[in-house]
Amino acid sequence: VSATYTRPVVYSIVAGNQPATFSMNMSTGVFYLDRMVDRERFSGYTLTVQADGGGGEVGQATIDVRILDVNDNTPKPVVSRQTVTVRPNHTVDTSVAVAMCSDADLGANGAVVYQIINGSRGHFSINGTSGIVQLTQVIHDNIFSISYSLLIECSDLGVPTSLSSTFVMVIDIEFSNTAPRFDRNPRSVSVSEAEPMGASVTKVTAIDPDSPPYGSLLYTIVSGDPTGDFQLNSTTGELTLSRTLDRETTASYSLRIEARDQAPRPLSDFLSLTVTVLDVNDNRPTFSPAALSLQVRSQLSVGTVVATLNATDADLGINGAFNLMILSGNVNDTFSIDTTKQQLILARPFNRTVTSSFTLVIQAEDFGSPQLTSSPSATVLITVLGSAPAFLNSSYSVVLLDNLAVLSPVISVTAQDVDTSNSLGLYYSIVSGNSMNHFDIFACSGRIYLAMPINAGLISNYTLVISAVVRGLPLLATNTTVTVLVKDQNEPPQCDNSTYVVSVYEGIRDLGRLVCSDRDVMRNRNFSYSLSDTHGNAILLDRLTGRLSLPRIVYVSVETCYNTTVIVTDLGTPPQRTLVPTRVCILSRIQLTPVSDTAIVVESILPNTIISSFSGKDLADTSAVLSYAIS
Length: 631
Known about the structure:
Number of strands: 52
Largest sheet: 4 strands, mixed
Helix content: under 10%
Distance between the termini: 157 Å
Radius of gyration: 65 Å
């Protein structure tokens, strides 16, 4: 640049030179490029130039500098690797992806064209200008390859030199696998338990719109057949029997059937199928137990239920319904049967002069086709008994002492069955009179024993009512009485203490009381106290109350003790007595302690001089005031 002025000027760049890209000759005004310029960073500069003529005379001018483009940038992919997924069976020319590259240059230098270098295998083409990738032929869902790696080149149109780069586009073919569906299949079927092995039960069918092998299905039983009673054809779906079924063992099955296609990632559908096993008459009625033995009384009234039978038939409906009938042994039509309740009923009174026992053969016959009868039939042996049992004695009595040990035998009672003349089969019990359950009886033998201790002072007599029962219908019982008298057995008195020890301070007379009792009755329960040694009447004992005492107030300087024995004697015959060793101690109440055991005096000692001292205390009363004297 140049400026017109009368004197020389100084040139400089005052603005727009960021970063410091240009410089200027101060004298000539010539511009210089100080560093390389990059159009992609700065496409131009606006510089402000100043001419300074001195003396405050300044002039400025603006210069616009434009940077022209050269082809110095290689096209670059937007992403270095692209992955796209398409479904098969698209038509030709379908766009499946777009390749994208960018070039920072301008014009032809920045215009990008595309081409596939490798990997299309004839299935893909690319629009050179837009980069759109299209199918050149249909890709079917049964092709072998499922993935393509296209190597795509991006080139610019720069002059004189064209620049280029490449990147990989991965195209995965996703097969359109549709899950199979069970449609219009029965949810429940039935089959007779008489069907043989291999018989067809039903056929299940699932639909899959895919072409093979993805549309090829395999059928399996997933659950519900733990014993393997069915077989399912894996390709046709036909369900057959692998063995003969038994409805009485398993009445129905809940099968879960799967249809699975053969795709690399297979899909499935499930069908829940209930198979009901139909009944056929293949079971006979049975009795449990098949033999009964009963004893009944001749006094039984007409209409009484003599026995209840237990007949069953494992079949269903009319196949499992049956009728009961007496085939033989029903003398004089004495019995009838209620089939509904399965009860054997007395239809006529017993006549023991005609027969005293019956052996009935009872048969059950179902209503199925063909009809089946019980095998074996039931046999019921009925024995008709007559009178109630009788005791050998009309009454019994026994005398016991009240010191009898528990579980000791008391008395035995015996009854007999009049019809059999023996005592077997009888059961004994205590019906009443057993106050406080002191007694019990062996049910089979009739032996009475003591269950709890007895005391003549509490209960002196019992009247036990004993019952003897014989088995049969109806139950017949006979009673007898057992009178139990309880006498007192004189026993020694019982004292609360096995030994008696007492200690008192001097000045106290009362020595306490020895407490005793006697569980006997009347004269045997009265008793008195005495001492084996009074030590010269130093100890007194009240013979009726057992209270010990001293005859007078006694003072002692040291502990004084007396040993004796309290004798407790009852008035029974012979008398019984209890000995209680006794020890009585009298303690000194005053404790006197000298300061020193020895006192030394000299012959010239003055009167009233203290030669020793003593300390005393009352052990019974620590607050008492003591006085001292020389005895």
